[in-house]
Specification:
Layout lengths: L1 H41 L8 H4 L6 E4 L2 E4 L2 E4 L4 E5 L5 E6 L2 E2 L8 E10 L9 H4 L7 E8 L6 E3 L4 E2 L4 H6 L5 E3 L3 E2 L2 H7 L8 E4 L1
Parallel strand pairs: 3-13, 6-11, 10-12
Antiparallel strand pairs: 1-2, 3-4, 4-5, 7-8, 7-13, 8-9, 8-10
Length: 206
């Protein structure tokens, strides 16, 4: 009889442990879902500096032509979020942006900042931004593609710039896949961001 009671006790204890484990896993999954939901709703086109959000930013470390570098900006196309980092690789802000629509998606890869241009883009002779300057907002951060293995640069028609209409860019299309490949930001934000972005800065689009 004692052996039977011990066996029952062990079985009951095991059942309680498994039930507790399932409950803990369910709570963890629910907590993750809640955190993700909060994460999505917390970031705005104007940016956030909340450390609970920024700790989820991707690592900016990258090797370019055999040398270790840190990206100044990472664009996450899956959520249309642009992360800004300081020179030490610490995330300091996160912004909602808009990127390429399905028919003209934004290319993934590594970019390098070549220069910046301001409205009305009179120096950009023979370009679309010269012909239709209002489509690009107040500032364009001009980029080139960068081969991380060789360091070679090549042209790209995709830049980071402002937008003609905040409503069309951020409100009428919830997923914000609206551009021809460029990454659009709130006009007020890019006017503040652009002066902090330097020539030669690395940008990762993933």
């Amino acid at each position: 009889m004692k052996i039977i009671n011990i066996t029952k006790t062990i079985a009951l204890t095991s059942m309680i442990f498994v039930a507790s484990l399932k409950q803990a896993n369910s709570s963890q999954i629910y907590s993750q879902e809640m955190q993700q939901d909060t994460f999505e709703r917390s970031i705005t086109p104007q940016g956030v500096k909340d450390t609970t959000i920024l700790r989820l930013a991707p690592k900016p470390d990258i090797v370019i032509n055999g040398k270790k570098k840190k990206a100044g900006i990472i664009v996450d196309l899956t959520k249309n979020i642009l992360y800004r980092y300081d020179k030490n690789g610490n995330p300091i802000n996160a912004y909602l942006i808009a990127s390429g629509k399905k028919s003209t998606p934004t290319d993934k890869g590594v970019r390098i900042v070549t220069h910046k241009e301001k409205f009305p883009y009179k120096s950009a002779i023979g370009t679309k931004r010269r012909r239709s300057p209002r489509d690009y907002g107040p500032v364009v951060i001009c980029l080139k593609k960068l081969d991380p293995k060789t360091g070679e640069q090549s042209k790209t028609g995709e830049f980071i710039h402002g937008c003609r209409s905040y409503e069309k860019t951020f409100e009428l299309t919830p997923d914000r896949y609206v551009s021809h490949g460029c990454m659009r930001m709130d006009n007020g934000v890019i006017k503040q961001l652009a002066p902090t972005v330097e020539k030669g800065e690395i940008i990762i689009i993933k």
